[in-house]
Amino acid sequence: MRSRIILISIFLLAMGATFLFRKPHSPDTGGVWSLTDHLSELEYLTDSLNSILADTINIRTASVEEGGTLGALLYSTGIEGNRYLNCCRIFIDSLGWTSVHVGDTLEAIYARDTLTEVRARPRNGRGYYCIKFDGTSEPVDWYWIPEEQYRRLRAVTLAVRSSVWESIACGAVPPDLTPSGYIVTPRDSVREVAYIKGLENELANRLFVYDIDFYYDVQPGDSVWVLLEETRYPGSSETSFRRIIAAKYDFALGGMTEAIPFFHQPDSLAPDGTAIILDHYHRDGASLRTMFLKMPVPFGRISSPYSDSRMHPVLGYTRAHRGIDYAAPMGTEIYAVGDGVITVRSFSGGYGNLVRVRHANGYETGYGHMSGYAQHQEIGSYVRQGDVIGYIGSTGLSTGPHLHFEMKKNGSYVNPATEILPPANPLLENDLDYFMLQLPVLERTWSRMAGMDIPALRIEGTDSNSTSTE
Ligand SMILES: [Zn+2]
Q1: Residue 156 main-chain phi, psi, to 5 deg
Q2: CB within 5 A of ion ligand 1: which residues?
Q3: How far is CA 101 from CA 30, 66, 77, 203, in A?
Q4: Boundaries of domain holding 373
Q5: CATH number where 328 lies
Q6: How deeply is 276 buried, as exposed, middle or buried, from its count of CB atoms within 10 A (0-12, 13-18, 19+)?
């Protein structure tokens, strides 16, 4: 049994983290989150890598026709015997799916010919029912997944042209971002820009910010392979960028940089209930990022450095400037430079609109003069490195749009530009073992992506087995 679990976990990892995990119901005794211990906790099977993995995953889909029954639906996707009986029992008794209607669909997902999951989508439902199998005829888990939790992976190959932005714009915008595949309305355009900005930000300002200088290192002929996660809204055909699962940057002149994913427990600052988080590493297990970003604004220009004494532009007398000012256009996004908890989020005298974030190891950062705050955050919110926390403004004692950024360690001001910062979340022991296990499989995915057309947009719509309307 154990060898099968390991095999299954290798298979899961084989999909380049095609599966996403949810936090275990009952946390372990303070330790490392283990994949094998929580196999039954798998929450989502995202299916956009089906074409890449066509030889390992097979999805059989059927729709309810006039006079159709649940039984007929199950049979037509190859579900028989005890699996059939168990599915009927769970759908009707446990999940409350008591009657089927024309247009409802069922998907039976087979991995190497073994049934792993059954999904039922009521035609007008806002989500789907899901039953998980572990390789036997006994289901291990079942639940309803609301549509706002839909996730999908997309594999994208970008040929670098003149700029990263252009490469992304040409290679990564999903054809189904708009119903027609083209920009037809201003709203579509806004969505597309948001998608591209999100992807670019994650790639250039977050994953590779320490490894690649996007002004000088990048040139035509380079290529980027990205496994990215999207949120889909099946009813409206909307797609939005969520995050990058894995990425690899190949330089035309030789050499490469990779961002290899690993899912683990958040640090101790995170409030209870914070989901499993995703971090990225080099192939030796070293963290891809340090504890803090270089800059809290994209491509920011330092308008006033940290100093112990300077002439204050508004007050007109010499006063220490225990922070760094970044000039940037009004409304530019401001990022949390590291993971942490928001402790201040209010107007605060000369700072104007201010956000403070408490980090691990006794650090705290402050962000002043904001024009506004990011939505859906409050005091106590846990933010990840690179999350938007507000927007450039000129509130408080300020002569023009800029960010006043400051950092404290154990309560004393430090210069963010010279502070030596520890690496973030290094991988240890068990985590490192699991990480190493997934490496070769991820590489296999990448090598297959390398053989795909560029830009690799043909993933969508090539799943001939599926008649899903998702
Ligand atoms: Zn300042």
Answers
A1: -130, 135
A2: 323, 325, 404
A3: 47, 8, 17, 44
A4: 301-414
A5: 2.70.70.10
A6: middle
Q: How far is the CA of 303 from the centre of ligand 1 (A)?
A: 9
Ligand 1 center from residue 245 Cα (angstroms): 36
Angle between helices 429-450 and 2-14 (to 10 degrees): 50
Residue keyed to tokens 């760094």: 324
Average pLDDT over all residues of the chain: 73
For 304-335, write each residue's pLDDT tens digit: 888 876 666 666 666 788 999 999 999 999 99
Structural domain count of the chain: 3
User: Per-residue confidence at 273, pLDDT binned at 50, 70, 90?
Assistant: low
Angle of the 186-200 helix axis to the 164-171 helix axis, nearest 10: 120
Question: What distance in angstroms lies between residue 410's CA and the mean position of ligand 1's atoms?
Answer: 20
Residues 100-149 pLDDT 10s: 998 898 988 887 678 888 989 888 777 789 899 888 888 988 988 776 66
Domain-embedded: residue 459: no
Return the structure tokens found at 67: 């006079």
